[in-house]
Amino acid sequence: MTDPTRDAAYALLHAVFSKGRSLDSALDSLPRIEARDKAAAHRLAAAVLRHAGTLDAVLEPYLRREPPPEIRTILRMGAAGLLFLGTPPHAAVGTVVALTRSKKLVPFAGLVNAVLRRVVGAAPHALDELDKPRLNTPAWAWTSWGKEARAIATAHAQEAPLDISALPGFTPEGGTALPTGSWRFPAGTPVAELPGFTEGKVWVQDAAAALPAKLLAPQPGERVLDLCAAPGGKTAQLCAMGGDVTAVERDKARMATLRGNLDRLHLKAELVTADGTQWHPAAPFSAILLDAPCSATGTVRRHPELLHLRKPRDIEAMTVAQDALLDAATQMLTPGGRLIYAVCSLQPQEGPARIDAACARLNLKRDPLTLPTLPEAVTGQGDIRTHPGLWAEQGGMDGFFIARLVRA
Ligand SMILES: C[S@@+](CC[C@H](N)C(=O)[O-])C[C@H]1O[C@@H](n2cnc3c(N)ncnc32)[C@H](O)[C@@H]1O
């Protein structure tokens, strides 16, 4: 017998590995199945993506030659069930052998059965000697993360907690108050069950993602530009702080999501659907938030497919877009005005290197930041760099790079 969970998990992994799709978009296009099966399939696919390097190292001694990619996926699924999800051996092996047959890979069913039975035998100590963080991280990413690489990669083994931001004056019951002002709930908490969600008092936003708008600190009534705005977590913060916010977003569908999010929170901003590198405001702004598109390597805990899909050349391509947006934002800034640049990336090319280049090319200078509630995130240059290994005991946080610039 095959089962709906294994079928759906295989479909998710096929979409990621063979079609380069994100896990979220693959989940959206699954055929209709029970919510419980869908959640279990998501958990299994995410475990394979998070631990793929470790799973391959466990399987390696039992494979005489490279199996077809479909069989490697099936073996990883069986081993992930056994080693990371506590699936009983007969179920972990039996279901993926049945899956192998149902995918018309019958000649490999014996191999899958034999290899996974060896893993069952080795299971109690199969992971003991392995350098799991290193095995699960591509070499280019590990090298680029410098001395924090091990802490970051270790944190990637866990699902991220659910953080929220709340409107001023609202206290989300049952949440843990974080020093930076966000509220934390355990991973897997259903969003609709969050206190204040249906009343439009809170929105989902990682603790690190909440920092850029706080660091821009708009004055009540100040005209503020949010240049890459959707889905609008930071727009909501800027509005809630009393800013007179203009939110620009290029993608129509994402702008519709932003509009829905602001409506739910009863917040108002001027919404402009436009390419931020082409749009010209009627008057310049004294405060701009540029939360630029990026490789998103700071969000691997939430999107474990990212390290399988991203390649170094994608990061180079992002820096071109980031420079163009920095050029455009500078043109929209009043003399003496401040610009917060943020990316949810751990890659130095998308962070400090973009700011060094902007200061050399444009009429801008770095204005060093302080962050008394998270001093360990402040770099020697006065930028902020968070990563999932910070506050590790409390569940970590997304990786963000944030810099403040002023126009001379
Ligand atoms: C990192 S996300 C922004 C997240 C958002 N600030 C928030 O807190 O919810 C980057 C956004 O920039 C948009 N974008 C990318 N290039 C753009 C451009 N040239 N002009 C305007 N928006 C752009 C993307 O569609 C995406 O929605």
Please provide a written account of the structure.
The structure is a single chain. The protein is an alpha/beta fold and 408 residues long. It has two domains: 4-130, Orthogonal Bundle (N-utilizing Substance Protein B Homolog, Chain A); 207-407, Rossmann fold (3-Layer(aba) Sandwich). The protein is built from 15 helices and twelve strands. Strands 5, 6, 7, 8, 9, 10, 11 and 12 form an eight-stranded mixed β-sheet that branches. A four-stranded antiparallel β-sheet has the order 2-3-1-4, with no helix packed on it. A hairpin with a 5-residue loop joins β2 and β3 (183-185). The longest helix is centred in the N-terminal third of the chain and has 25 residues, at 35-59. The radius of gyration is 23 Å and the shape is elongated. The mean pLDDT is 97. The structure holds S-adenosylmethionine (SAM). The site of S-adenosylmethionine has 18 residues, from α11 and β6. One of its GO terms (biological process) is RNA methylation. The active site is at 344 (nucleophile).
